[in-house]
Amino acid sequence: MQLDIILRGQSNAILLAELERGAAAGRLVQEVERLLGFDGVKDRVTLLHDRDGQGGDTMYSGTAFLGEWMARSQAGWAAGPLEQGFLARMGQYRAEGMGDATAILWMHSEYDSRDPNLLTADWTAAVRTDAALTRQALGRDAPYLFVAAHPYGDGTDAGHQAIRAGMEALDADPRFDAAIVARAPDTDIALDDLDGNPATTEYGFAHITAGDAMLIATRAARGVAEEWAAYAKPGSPVALARGDIASDGPMVVAASAAGPGQLQVDVRHDGTGGFLPLSAGAAKGLGWSLALPDGRRIEATGAAVLDADSLVVGFGQAVPAGAVLHYAWGIGRTAEPGGPGAGNAVLDSAALPAWTPAAGIAVGAPAMLPATPLPPRQGMAPPSPADALMRLTFGRDATAEEAGFLGWMEGRGVSRGDIARGLASGEAFGARTAGLDDAEFIALLHRDALGRGPAPAEQRLWQAEFAAGADRIDLVEALGDRIGSDLVFG
Predict the structure, then answer these.
(1) What's the pLDDT at 423?
(2) DSSP letter at 8?
(3) Are strands 2-8 and 44-48 parallel, antiparallel or unpaired?
(4) Handedness of CA 127, 132, 133, 137 (dihedral sign)
(5) Are 353 and 311 a contacting pair, CB within 8 Å?
(6) Which of 18, 13, 15, 180 is nearest to 107 (CA)?
(7) Other C-beta atoms within 10 Å of 218: how many?
(8) Would you state the pLDDT for residue 489?
(9) Strand partners, 298
(10) Which tens digit of pLDDT belongs to each residue from 350-405?
(11) How confident is the model at residue 95 (pLDDT cuts 50, 70, 90)?
(12) Closest Cα partner for 145 from 250, 47, 40, 63?
């Protein structure tokens, strides 16, 4: 078996691939193989990257994705010359013989982040077009696995936030097939010799160091391996974790008053049991900030672990009403001005950093907790589409007569989503789900339709949809359309 990673980006992707004779690239491949239980010979992972500058590159230094790779068109976005070369390279890769699966590891954020007026909608639209073209060239689906817009000193805070919001939106869209596989605010970005004196170190400008590259590769390997859980060998770390290893890091889900000038910050861990002891930098509160309604921003003055899933973060002054909490906002390096970033992040026991959604966490607002994923059902074959539809809408399997009727409807071209919407329009469905809040409703329907709880991104997406006025039946239809292609069982 062979699984292929295609690395995309600009100079920092090149550095990850090439620094110290490809040490970080080797770590990425070896870690994915280790987590999946591959031997590296019969079963292996490959990393594809090109940067010859003659066309067909997967990486090209000093290029913006918007405008240089993807060009504006009357229809929205179209492939520019660099993109056309990349697509030709994907055609060559396909012709030469692809592995059993392909994933895109995306590090392309630096130059686009320089635009303070960058619109998330523009960025996501361009990536959607790029993905459609790439998947067409490959003749197969390929998940987009993002390294979150990492610190780039020549970028802008607004540009970084726009890209992060776009990545989160694509991650939350089950139809797009994407995930954020690494976050790295705790990097030095110190490869550049800005003062011409090699004896001094200048932190936080443009280019990652070998240590930064190793950090990003090690974290990304977890997300890549989890994406490929279906290929994990028995007894491997991914298989033993039933496909859900620690990969996301602690997600901040709530912030509330804990005392004068202090907030209790609650997190949702991903496959870990708590925090590592805070380093001196993390204890200073580096990276935490509050956005105020008047546009001001307050930086934290300290942080401490309260319990396994809570921190206390201090701000040295009263927290104003309407404040929104962020971690690693904007360019987002967990560092003092001009100082190193390595070792300064709040980390969980898997050494993954804490994070807040791009929009931040409103202080005092009710937590939007992702539902706890349900364990796979063991020893059971996947249900038939008819059983899954009836479980989704009525909480039980289909009778023989119902299965025959539902099959007849599908044979007449009625989609499973439309069938599910029709079944859920009666009083029985309303009675079954009455009294459930949105989080409970989302968790119940995912379990019944797909045999698992919702992923955090799915939970966030649907809670946001409901908050914006979506009908609950919309979720029924969406899950109905996924029946048969998104069932997870042990």
Answers:
(1) 87
(2) E
(3) parallel
(4) positive
(5) no
(6) 13
(7) 17
(8) 25
(9) 290
(10) 999 999 999 999 998 544 433 333 333 333 355 788 888 888 888 888 887 778 77
(11) very high
(12) 47
Between 83 and 454, residue with greater pLDDT: 83
Please identify which residue in the block is written with the tokens 């249900």: 383
Name residue 127's beta-bridge partners.
none
Q: Maximum distance among all alpha carbons in the chain?
A: 80
Distance CA 83, CA 81 (A): 5
Q: Which of 345, 339, 370, 375 is nearest to 357 (CA)?
A: 370
* DSSP three-state, residue 326: strand
Stated pTM of the model: 0.76
Token pair belonging to 77:
């976005």
C-alpha to C-alpha distance for 329 and 161, rounded to whole angstroms: 7
What is the C-alpha separation between 19 and 188, in angstroms, rounded?
15
- pLDDT for 379: 37
Q: Which of 126-130, 225-229, 257-261 has the lowest mean pLDDT?
A: 257-261
pLDDT at 142 over 80: yes
For 324, the 3-state DSSP assignment is strand
Pairing relation of β-strands 144-147 and 44-48?
unpaired
Give the number of residues written for the chain: 490
Q: Is 33:40 a contact under the CB 8 Å cutoff?
A: yes
Q: Give me the torsion for CA of 421, 422, 427, 431, rounded to 10°.
A: -30
Q: pLDDT over 70 for what percent of the chain?
A: 95
Domains of the chain (ranges; CATH) run: 2-240 (3.40.50.1110), 251-362 (2.60.40.1220), 385-482 (1.10.3130.20)
| CA–CA separation, 45 and 99 (whole Å) | 9
Please compute the mean of the pLDDT values over residues 403-415 and round it to a whole number.
78
Beta strands in 376-486 (DSSP E): none
Residue type, 175: R
Tell me how far CA of residue 36 lies from CA of 33, 224, 233, in angstroms. 5, 10, 6
Asked if residue 63 lies in contact with residue 53, where contact means CB atoms within 8 angstroms, the answer is no
DSSP state of 174: T
Confidence of residue 139 (pLDDT cuts 50, 70, 90): very high
Q: What is the mean pLDDT of the chain?
A: 90
Q: Sort strands 310-314 and 262-268 into parallel, antiparallel or unpaired.
A: antiparallel
Which amino acid is present at 26?
G
What are the distances in angstroms from CA 453 to CA 37, 255, 265, 302, 486?
A: 26, 25, 25, 36, 12
From the number of C-beta atoms within 10 Å of its C-beta (0-12, 13-18, 19+), residue 411 rates as exposed
> What are the two backbone dihedrals, phi and then psi, of residue 322, each rounded to the nearest 5 degrees?
80, 10
